[in-house]
Structure formats: C-alpha cells, structure tokens
Amino acid sequence: MLENTLQEAQGRLSWRPDPANPLTVWACWLDAPAHYWLTWGDGTPEQHLPSWSDPVKHTYAAPGTYTITATAQTGHTQIQQVQVNDPSPITITGFDLTARVTLDSSASQSVRLKISWPDWDSEIVHLEPGEHTEAPTLPGLRQVTTLDTDTGQTLARRVTITDPQDIYGTFDLTRDGRTVSVRRTGPDNHDGQTWQVRWGDETTSTPWQRPSPLPEGAATSHTYERAGQYWIEVSGQYLGTVYTRARQVVIR
Q1: Tens digits of per-residue pLDDT, 150-194?
Q2: Is 234 within 8 Å of 243 (Cβ atoms)?
Q3: Which of 107, 183, 199, 225 has the greatest count of CB atoms below 10 A from its CB?
Q4: CA 140/CA 119 separation, integer angstroms
Q5: Domain 90-161 indexed as CATH 2.60.40
C-alpha cells in the first residue's frame, strides 16, 4: 500500500519514495473507475492513466523539490510536493559467503558508518572514498543496513549471497503462517547420499524434534509451536562428507 496519502471524498493522490533509488518516486490516483492525468513537476510530458492501474514510477534527473499534480477527468485536482535527494555514495553488494559495503571513490568526504550485518555483530567503521569493508554471511537473500552516524541517514539493501561450493544445489523455503516447507533444488542425489532438515526448535518442542528426511524432488514441512527466530539447516552426507546450508526464519 502506498504511503503519504492525500485523501478527499473525490479521490486521493497516493505516493511514496522508492527505497532502492532516492531519485525515484511512485504515485497513483485512487478513485472510482475513472481516468486521470499525472504530471511530475520536472517538465516531462504528463501521463494519461486509468485510476485502477498499478502505481507508476518516475525518476528525476536531479535532486530537488518537485510538485506532483493529479487531475481526474471530473476536473478534481490534488497536488503534492516531494523532495528527492542524491543517490547514496554507499553501495552494498553480495559475493560468495560475503557481504560488502563500499564508499564510492567519487564521494566528497569520508563517512563513519554503523553497519548491521545479517550474520555478524554490528560494527562502526570509518571509510575513505574508494574503501570498503565486509563480513562473512550465509548464502541466500540477506539484508545489510548502514547508519551514517554524522547525518543519521540509513540505507538498507537486500543482496544475494552465493556459495562457491554450491555443487549440491540450494533449497527453497516457503511459509504458510507458522508452517514452513523446504524443498531441495539442484543436481540429483549421488548414490548413497542422504538429506535431512533440522528446524531450529528442537529444544523448545515436546517431545524434541528429530531431523526430518528430505526426499529428492519433494518438500518436507514443519509447524512451529512458538513464535521466535529459528535457523533451518539442510544437511547432506555422502562418503563421510557433510554439506550444510542454513537459513533464518522469523515466526510470528
């Protein structure tokens, strides 16, 4: 749902900033089935849109304050001023088992950041332009958040962390309420290789949970009794070697 809504009985203009790009704004007109005209306030041509369409996005060429105007086919008009800023000189990227935070070499000055890593303690680092810092991270889609301790500005990114030894494939995880299902993807099993899932709540269940077998090409499911944060671990054993993948879930 869009934020920052101006609401009247005749319809409303709804907009929000794009979390991935501070120069980008999403907007739409919410009203009974009708058409409206949308202008972004930067001289680009207006857009003629149906009010039941999905929100549309617009990227401004430069930071500044702009006026978004929406005019319904009835003539009713709403306007909203929006402030867009320069893109952050900080980039967050994912690599093999590593997340990295970099200060662009074109940055005008150094920064002091508090970084919240997904699988590591938070830390405060000082970066000069062109420098980076990194931390070990488990495979999967993981979030890294930075806080500029001088300006108070935050930046959060979800990045894909890969595994250089991903020769046994990965696993998909789906949720339905407190029930989580796991399916392994990737190459077929080697002869004699077995896979199992530990759900992370073994010590909070009565009786304690045993690992669940994970058959080839099929899913196995588990329902958590209590809310909390759990690590799901998928492990396979072949000729004495154990291969393990883990992912965290939050159960509410």
Answers
A1: 888 888 888 888 776 655 566 788 999 999 999 877 655 555 567
A2: no
A3: 199
A4: 12
A5: yes
